[in-house]
Amino acid sequence: MLAARKNTMQSSNHDAGGPPQHPPGRHLYFDDRAAVPWHRSLAAALFQARDQGKRVLIVIGRRDCGGTRALIEKIVPKQEIADELRASFVCVCGDHGSQEEAVSALTHQAPRREPTPLCLYTDADGRLLHSTVGGRPAAVFLRDLTEAHARR
Length: 152
Hints:
alpha/beta; 5 strands; five-stranded mixed sheet; about 45% helix; Glutaredoxin; about 20% strand; globular
């Protein structure tokens, strides 16, 4: 009975503007060794970001992109970076060739969209704060995170 009531409550929360019922999980293509949970839906990430007072990081890449692989497999799992991401950001992964409409709209606001990975930093309302393209050393990526978190 309790489980049925909980499912009803979740459905009504979603209908009333609650989060979509797709929990974050693994990155779309690469293994970050469970450093951070990855959303596939910007709407779910924005809901969580508003609820938790965080920013959103959207990483758009390709399965065959060495820069995206390096970011997710080598840089994101670094302790200092994973800690900053978990504390200050909700993460979204997307594919360069197939993006949801809201992510595509943000992509077109970025001054540059190539090469991948394209990292879009937004506030909890989905306003673009900062963007970067291409592979970046860990120290530079951490600086990007810190700067994006500090922007208003």
